[in-house]
Amino acid sequence: MGFVGHWGAWTVRGLVGFAVIFVTFASLKNGAALAEISKRAEPLPVSFGFMAAHLLAMAAFGALSWALYGNHLAAFSTPLSGPLWLVTGLCGIAFAAFSLIPFTVWLRLLRETGWLWAGALVAVVAACLVGAYSRSLWAPTIGLTFGLTKAFLSLFVSGISADPVRMTLGTAKFTVEIAPECSGFEGAGLVLAFGVLWLWLFRRECRFPQALILLPAGVVTVFLLNAVRITGLILIGNAGAQQVASEGFHSQAGWMAFNAVALGFSVAATRVPWLNTSKQPAPPIALTASENPTATYLLPFVCILFVGMLTTAVSGGFEWLYPIRFLAAAAVFWIWRKRYRALDWSFGWFGPAIGILVFALWIAADTLLTAPASDAMPHALTDSSAPIRITWIVFRILAAVLTVPIAEELAFRAYLIRRVISADFEALPLRAFTWLGLGISSLAFGFLHGGLWFAGILAGLLYAWALIRRGRIGEAVIAHSTTNALLACYVLIFHKWHLWS
Predict the structure, then answer these.
(1) Residue-range definition of the domain harbouring residue 366
(2) Which DSSP state fits 244?
(3) Which residue of 185, 410, 473, 486 could cross-link 297, Cys pair, CB 3.0 to 4.6 Å?
(4) Contact 234/176 with Cβ under 8 angstroms?
């Protein structure tokens, strides 16, 4: 029981992590062998016996999970509940695997990949152990963050109120509590993970061991920026903008710091000769769409995200500056309008039909999965004058129907699906796709939509279908635009304002 309580969730994370690591490195190192195994396994029928066993095992696993994690243990009073929970879960996975692919094929997969399974297992176990016990580092980390923030704050204000026992820090006007989650430890972990991944992917271009200095440099930088973030939070609140400090700035400043450090890491790794193996200076960064085709597809979406991060950071409880997102994206489209004219923006009946289908799925998912406490119009809008309220709503609709669908379809469908296939993605037609690229783009699009991530994944798949069917970006854009237009009507008519949150 103690194992389930402490390590149950980590076991699930470990299983997922093992699968991701094994498949990734097996594809990189044994791609030809995997393709041959896949070709042989494709015509084999599904084993309905193993599938039935899988369903029974997962039913038992679900019942035990309900008992153990839902405080219903009286229904399963046996002391074997913990071990049974683990066994039924593992059996459910194994039976599903054997129902789709025979045991002999799995053995061949292990032979072809050698000891990769052992390496992946060791890596996952180590990661889970580090993750589980990393919380013990929060106490000393938060103390260091408290001291740094106090030192930074003393440079700007006097009469600081500091309580190292309760971890409260501030001024007479505004005080914050530095929680363990705000110690900077998680930000340092994100930068470390980003840096390791970068150095691995671009190991041929990096000069080792010099490039390894970027890892501690990035961790230290983001840790210091976290203290700067908390200092800025207190100063903004002390200046009188307490709602902006506690809601907008607090939620966005950490991600802004991480993005800044990640960008600095990337630039240093590619443009500092001491860290890069290139003997010639790096060419100037392409700023125009004609020189950098990737920018054509990604810059509008990145622009919306960046401007949204800034406008949210300076907002209180309501993002009054949302229209700037629309204006920024529209400016990008206008500046590079000649480049975008080369794409096929035509569409037929299929795109709007897909848009209507996605709208229906979205409303169904929202009805089943969310139960908002209040769907009323935000007080900031109701308390404002009619011209201001109407202007904000108009820009919100324009962004939802015009700039957002174009930017997201360019990034997720027109770019990402083909980029997974080839670095020279523009040489491929828009109808080109692989199941891996389709899955990655749809997952990324789904997770962008928070709690409705599953509906987002389905929407991504359907929009991709609209694109691939005829190879016209206009088909996917009109589908996305139709969905958003219907959602806008649904929000305004039925007062479902949580859908615009």
Answers:
(1) 293-500
(2) I
(3) 410
(4) yes
231-273 pLDDT, tens per residue? Answer: 988 998 888 777 777 777 877 788 888 888 988 988 888 888 8
287-314 burial by CB neighbour count: b if 16+ within 10 A, else e?
Answer: eebeeebebbbbbbbebbbebbbbbbbe
**Reported confidence tier of residue 211, pLDDT bands at 50, 70, 90:** confident
- Can you read off the two tokens belonging to residue 222? 């983001």
- Nearest Cα residue to 430 out of 460, 392, 473, 465: 473
Pairing of strands 168-170, 161-163: antiparallel
Q: Are residues 355 and 465 in the same domain?
A: yes
CB 271 within 8 A of CB 282: yes
Could you read off the pLDDT of 71-91 as tens digits, one per residue? 665 555 566 777 888 889 889
The answer to whether 323 and 397 have CB atoms below 8 angstroms apart is no
Q: What is the tens place of the pLDDT at every residue in 434-472?
A: 888 888 899 889 888 877 888 899 999 999 999 999 999
In contact, 408 and 301? CB cutoff 8 Å: yes
**Are 312 and 449 within one domain?**
yes
Identify the three-state secondary structure at position 169: strand
Cα distance from N-terminal residue to C-terminal residue, the chain: 40
Nearest to 418 by CA among 397, 441, 388: 441
Q: Is residue 128 part of a domain?
A: no
